[in-house]
Amino acid sequence: MRSKFICLLISLVTVLSVAATQMAEAALPVARIGIVTDGQWLRHPEAVDVFKQELLTLAEGEFDVRFPEARTLHGNWSIDGVNGALDALLNAPDVDMIMALGFVATSETFKRKNLQKPVFCPFVVDDKVQKLPINGGGSGVKNLNYINVQKSIDKEIKTLNEIAPFSTLSVIANPFDIKALPGVVAYLKNRAKDNGIQLHFVEYAGTAEKTLEKIPPSTEAILVSALLQTPPDEFDKLVNGLIDKMLPSFSIWGMDDVKAGVLATLTPQSNLQHLARSVAVNILEVLRGEKAETLPVSFSGGQSLTINWATAKAIEVYPKWDIMTEAQLIDDHVRGEGRRLTLEDAVKESVKANLDLMAADRAVASGMEDVKKSRSSLLPQIGLGTQATLIDSDRAAWAAGSNPEKTWTGSATAGQVLYSDKAWTGYTVQKHTQESRVENREALMLDIMNTAATAYLNVLRAEAVLNIQTDNLKLTRANLERSKVRVSVGAAGPEEVYRWESELANRLQEVLVAESSLLDARSEMNRIMGRPLTEDFAPAESGVRDPLPVLKDHRIFDYLETPRKIRVLMDFLMQESLVLSPELKAINAQMAARQRILVSSKREFWLPTIELQGSVTEMFDKSGEGSQDTSFDDTNWSVGVSASLPLFSGGGKSAELRQSREEIARLDTERKATAERVTQRTLIAMNKVRASYPGIRLSKNAAESAANNLQLVTDSYVRGVLSIIDLLDAQNLALVAEQQAANAVYDFLTNLMEVQRSTGAFFLYADEAERDEWFGKMEHYFSK
Asked: Which residue positions does the secretion signal occupy (predicted)?
């Protein structure tokens, strides 16, 4: 009975909660937004949804924002159509506000003196050309709010001319835009004429092929308008056609066009998002009771130059240093291009190309022959010989046929050591010496792998620093633009602009230094890999902010989560290093060799060398005195066993015995010292990991906090609440925090490479079976 009551109570609470939520939602004030576009956007159709989503997100819980489907209209790419759409929405009773999302829709709205309801216009072509109304920071025109991004066609043409100088410029635009914006067209022609530039307007002719044919042969550069009426595939063909014609191009729309192959733009990637957010904020202010004409119209998003380096190379345009340094480069020549290179690839190439390792390989191969040479004295020795002899006749006669005057003989000899402790010692010592050579070669290879991995990580580190410095440069440039806006509205003096210009020069220098460091790091990596120092490559892990993509096996992180786990892992790896260290193995091999020499030195006092020997001699020819005697046949042979034991060697045997004992004592001491160094190296490396691994998370949090602080300070600076000093401090704090966050990742990875080197195995980069074995041993050790 009690359980039924509880279920009934839960059901009642759920129903009441849903009802309360629905009532709360129903109680929200409704805002119905109409939208006008110049026509159906074939390119970037998602832009309209960006404006909708920003408003819905900001208004959530405060207003019930709706976009009636029947009130999203387009002008069908005609002036009359645009004005008809505006009239319809201005007079529609089910529309509270209007977003004019189009260059022509915005322009046509500016021409109206009487707006019945608030209209928001984010697409300004050029504030100076269109002579935008402004009064006290707002438009001053009833129900009109626009967003002025301080876009300047003059500046865009000037920037293109700095990148690739020209005297003849063609502007590719839709016929509708050319007809609907006569003021912009006239302004451009006059400005071009004043600057000695011949200007042509090329109407988009429906296809890329036809449009390319209309470009005058004298054209030296292209200004590409938004071309929203152009299908995406045709736009791609148009861009490729401009590249084929070796024409530098500049996009008015922004970054997406540059990614498609247009040479450059000043409009940043975030421009559309910021525009949408600014419109959403102003709409909310009107919904809260503010007047549209009083809301701010200035949007200081800043401009940043972006250059497509692949396009620049294709059309053989190479901008000056200052331009390249300020710009964001797609397919960056400094940050790397060409073949993709992973950390594992870099290490393998370095091992393969290293000259010291090649020499060590030769030494190992040569040492193997020493082993074979020492073994040869323990194997049968066989020899063949021939001899022709002439002796005086009287001696031959006296020999009675045993030694004729003229003889020619052939002989074969054979010998086999039955036991020689000295020979066995030589063979055993050479085998141990070869083991030592192999282990020394292994130690060298581990050093090379560690050096190569560190060099590769240094390339990634330098690239990260360059990216951070470049972003800081862009931010400084944006702040310079913000300061100019503050000066223009009387919120600051000209000294503020000069300060930012000084900061910009300093940031440019820092970017140049960072670029140089990256090039140095890349040349060092190429040297280690045995490649041309200036060869380009693109690290596969570029821009890494997390160690996961660089490490082949992520299970290691489970052992780094707590101080205790790190301590246990440290003990395990120190223990393993004593087993795996090639330096210790090399000394062990040398000690084994010396132990064998000591045993041999003791045995040499009483143990003889025993050898079996035999020979056969055949008489091939004989003549002269004594040759007629037939008492002896032509074949002689002998077999014998010999044993030898040196009784006195002038004290040499005793000296060798004492020397062997001293050498063993020396090697034992050296082994203890090496063991201490090996374990200490592992300990130091793990201590660094102990600090650097948690530092990744801490520095990342610090960077995020500094970035959030910078955003708040920037907004307050734009509103005039905080000073330039506050913004500079916040920017510098964010820069330092971002660099520390990047360094933390690469410090950890470098330390982890050193841990593997000190252990004697790069187990995180071994094959899967070996990695499984390693982690199995770790788990077993932890379980104890």
From this structure: 1-26
Adjacent-strand bridge partners of 199:
169
Q: Angle at Cα 216 formed by Cα 212 and Cα 221, nearest 5°?
A: 80
Q: What is the CATH number of domain 30-150+272-298?
A: 3.40.50.2300
Q: How far apart are the two ends of the chain, measured CA to CA in Å?
A: 53
Q: Virtual CA dihedral for 691, 692, 696, 699, nearest 10 degrees?
A: 70
Of 231-240, 267-276, 623-632, give the lowest mean pLDDT range.
623-632
| Whole-number Cα distances in Å, 772 to 446, 556, 567, 769 | 21, 11, 21, 5
Cα–Cα distance list, 402 to 60, 162, 619, 630 (Å) = 127, 110, 11, 9
Output the six-digit token pair for 753. Answer: 């490479």
Q: Is 91 helix (H, G, I), strand (E, B) or coil?
A: helix
Mean pLDDT of 618-633: 74
Question: CB–CB of 622/632 below 8 Å?
Answer: no
Q: Does domain 430-584+669-783 sit in CATH 1.20.1600.10?
A: yes
Query: Around Cβ 511, how many Cβ atoms within 10 Å?
Result: 23
Q: Which two tokens stand for residue 764?
A: 């995180």
Rounded average pLDDT over 516-526:
91
Q: What's the mean pLDDT in 579-595? A: 88
Alpha carbon of 337 to those of 310, 462, 539: distances in Å?
Answer: 10, 15, 9
* Residues 275 and 299: beta-carbon distance below 8 Å: yes
**So what's the pLDDT on residue 324?**
75
Going by pLDDT thresholds of 50, 70 and 90, the confidence category of residue 520 is very high
Residue 544's pLDDT band (boundaries 50, 70, 90)?
A: low
Beta pairing class for 168-173 and 221-224:
parallel
**pLDDT interval class at 25 (50, 70, 90):** very low
Q: What percent of the chain has pLDDT over 90?
A: 27
**Could you give the CA distance from residue 34 to residue 51 in angstroms, rounded to a whole number?**
12
For residue 526, give both structure tokens. Answer: 């190429």
Using DSSP's 3-state secondary structure scheme, residue 419 falls into: strand
The Cα–Cα gap between 509 and 482 comes to 22
DSSP state letter for 631: S
Identify the band that residue 24 occupies on the pLDDT scale cut at 50, 70 and 90. very low
Q: Which two tokens stand for residue 231?
A: 């299908």
Burial 688-721 (b: 16+ CB within 10 A, else e): bbbebbbbbeebbebbeebbebbeebbeebbeee
Would you state the structure tokens that stand for residue 654, as one six-digit string?
């005793």
* Angstrom distance (rounded) from CA 554 to CA 547: 9
Instruction: Write the CB contacts of 442 (distance below 8 Å, at least 6 apart in sequence).
Output: 582, 585
- Give the residue range(s) of CATH 1.20.1600.10 domains in the chain: 430-584+669-783
User: What was the pLDDT predicted at 301?
Assistant: 55
Residues of the chain with CATH 3.40.50.2300: 30-150+272-298, 153-266+301-330
pLDDT band at 1 (very low <50, low <70, confident <90, very high): very low
Query: Which of 312-326, 628-642, 662-676 is least confident?
Result: 628-642
**Which residues, listed in sequence order, are joined to residue 85 by a DSSP beta bridge?**
none
pLDDT band at 676 (very low <50, low <70, confident <90, very high): very high
Q: Between these two residues, 593 and 236, which has the higher pLDDT value?
A: 236
State CA 755 to chain mean position distance: 22
Contact (CB, 8 A) for 520 and 459: no
CA atoms within 13 A on the CB side of 228: 23
**What 3-state DSSP class applies to 763?**
helix
